[in-house]
Amino acid sequence: MTNIEVKARCTDVRRAEENLNSIGAGLAGxxxxxxxxxxxxxxxxxxxxxxxGPEEGYVIYYERSEKAGPKRSDYEVSSTSDPIAMRxxxxxxxxxxxxxxxxxxxxxxxxxxxxxxxxxxxGCFVELEALTEEQGIRESQSRIxxxxxALEIASDDLVNCSYGDLLSANK
Length: 171
Description:
This protein has helices at 13-22, 83-94, 137-150, 163-170; strands at residues 2-9, 26-39, 46-53, 56-64, 71-80, 96-109, 112-119, 123-132, 158-159. By secondary structure, the protein is α+β, with helices and mostly antiparallel strands.
């Protein structure tokens, strides 16, 4: 699967919510205490386990460039009904390099998922992820750029790496 995505610091979540409402985005839900465990990877990509609850988790592997601004991300997702056991297995195989806890609001606008994240130890962020196919990359890129303007995302706000990388850099 492929996304065009961008991550940025968000200094005013209330303003971001107002801007999302003004363009017709809809709040799809809020996930409290979402936990991502990042594992050492044997490839250039990133491997993480997202725990959404005691019986809901997702193993996510993705490859993307580490540049600020909109970028392509190719990824695979597999669900698990036992994320605690899955974390144990992956930890024994790969080792853990970071754990991220966050509250996430998910908004939807056209083919774009908008995440307003409050990340423990890092602060607030906005992520834009446009699900796309090869022939729709330009259109998805355009939608991301439209949302960046609507959300008043400045180039200084852009983040070029994962939350796991940010936490590791802060230690």
